[in-house]
Design goal:
Elements lengths: L1 H12 L7 E2 L15 H14 L6 E7 L5 H4 L6 H4 L10 H4 L23 H11 L8 E7 L2 E2 L14 H5 L2 H11 L3 E5 L1 H9 L5 E3 L7 H13 L3
Parallel strand pairs: 2-3, 2-5, 5-6
Antiparallel strand pairs: 1-4
């Protein structure tokens, strides 16, 4: 898996060359990153995250990377605040993401941006449900229909926008590869875009309400019902 995973991340690194898309595994966010080494940190963190999920049972599949999450960590639906231990009070620990003994969790945003690192509401809600599910957090892989960060050029890098249909299609092959490579048994589609992609690709999935825009209570209820009844 190590070789295949290295190739997978290298392919991610060389895709998404267009305006309004930030590729965290290749590009430097010149205004907000700590330096030119930031993409390499993000690649290593994604690699370690996925390596520790051999034999995962669930793939929780969202829409796209956000500026408060994967933009700076390189890991879908995972914020710097989580990696830095800033959500321990919620029971979310850095070692739930990957083992600190294998790789030191690092931020890639400048500390003067957010002293404790960026935090993303969706990431916090999703991770809280995972760690309190009673299952090993490494039984879950987090991914996105569009693996990169779509932003509004008018608003700058610290913004999110909904990816266009043709953009999402560029993420199709990565979802297929990840499902095959990981061997996950259950695909949980977080929102319309994720479910539409899975359906178009002939991948069986179960739709969950996205936590954003007032959907957090419904998401929690559906997650507990679906994950709680499968062992």
């Amino acid at each position: 898996m190590k070789k295949a995973l290295g190739h997978f991340i290298d392919m991610l690194r060389h895709h998404a060359n267009r305006d309004g898309i930030f590729n965290p595994w290749r590009q430097v966010d010149k205004e907000h990153d700590v330096g030119r080494h930031a993409p390499a940190i993000r690649r290593r963190q994604l690699f370690q995250y996925l390596m520790e999920r051999k034999g995962a049972l669930y793939l929780l599949h969202g829409e796209a990377l956000g500026y408060q999450g994967g933009h700076f960590t390189g890991i879908p639906m995972t914020s710097e605040r989580i990696l830095l231990g800033g959500h321990k009070s919620r029971g979310i620990l850095p070692e739930h993401v990957f083992s600190p003994s294998a790789l030191e969790p690092r931020r890639t945003s400048r500390p003067d941006q957010k002293r404790q690192g960026f935090t993303e509401p969706t990431a916090t809600i999703v991770w809280a449900q995972i760690v309190h599910s009673g299952k090993n957090p490494k039984s879950f892989i987090l991914w996105n229909a569009f693996p990169w960060h779509p932003y509004s050029p008018d608003s700058g890098m610290l913004s999110n926008r909904t990816p266009h249909s043709d953009e999402i299609e560029t993420g199709d092959s990565f979802l297929i590869q990840l499902v095959k490579m990981s061997g996950v048994k259950e695909i949980l589609a977080l929102g319309e875009k994720a479910q539409e992609q899975a359906h178009r690709l002939g991948i069986d999935s179960i739709k969950l309400r996205h936590p954003a825009s007032g959907g957090s209570a419904e998401f929690r209820k559906q997650f507990r019902r679906l994950v709680g009844r499968r062992d």
